[in-house]
């Protein structure tokens, strides 16, 4: 083949190549996007926490009697549920194994 023919083939194949990418630029842009999303999430969660705290602070005097009466009746149930969760976690999250229902 001649040099001119080779140059035309190279030019033809060059059109099919993907565009050049700058890895450092792409990394910097992705880091900036991730940082902005993180800051947005922190701002949203901080605002929700503050609003929730203020609402709870305002409502706490009226909620105290309700919480006290419910807690006296729910203490045994809460203890049983806590024990069940601990057993399931110690069994590796397999309730059948914790209850002895799993066959080898």
Q: Bin the strand percentage.
A: under 5%
Series of H and E elements? HHH
Structural class: mainly alpha
Number of helices: 3
Percent range of helical residues? over 70%
**Outline type:** elongated
Distance between the first and last residues' Cα: 72 Å
What low-confidence regions span 5 or more consecutive residues with pLDDT below 50?
none
Rg over C-alpha atoms, rounded to the nearest angstrom: 32 Å
By oligomeric state, this entry counts as: single chain
Mean pLDDT: 84
Compute the number of structural domains: 1
Q: What is the total tally of β strands?
A: 0
Major sheet: none
Describe the protein's architecture and organization.
The chain has 104 residues and is mainly alpha-helical. It has one domain (22-98). Helices cover 81% and strands 0% of the residues. It is built from three helices and no strands. The protein is elongated.
Write the layout of secondary structure elements.
Layout lengths: L2 H12 L8 H68 L4 H4 L6
């Amino acid at each position: 083949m001649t040099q001119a023919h080779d140059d035309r083939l190279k030019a033809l194949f060059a059109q099919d190549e993907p565009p050049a990418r700058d890895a450092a630029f792409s990394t910097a842009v992705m880091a900036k996007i991730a940082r902005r999303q993180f800051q947005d999430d922190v701002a949203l969660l901080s605002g929700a926490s503050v609003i929730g705290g203020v609402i709870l602070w305002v409502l706490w005097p009226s909620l105290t009697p309700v919480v006290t009466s419910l807690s006296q009746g729910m203490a045994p149930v809460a203890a049983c549920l806590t024990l069940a969760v601990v057993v399931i976690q110690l069994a590796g999250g397999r309730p059948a194994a914790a209850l002895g229902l799993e066959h080898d």
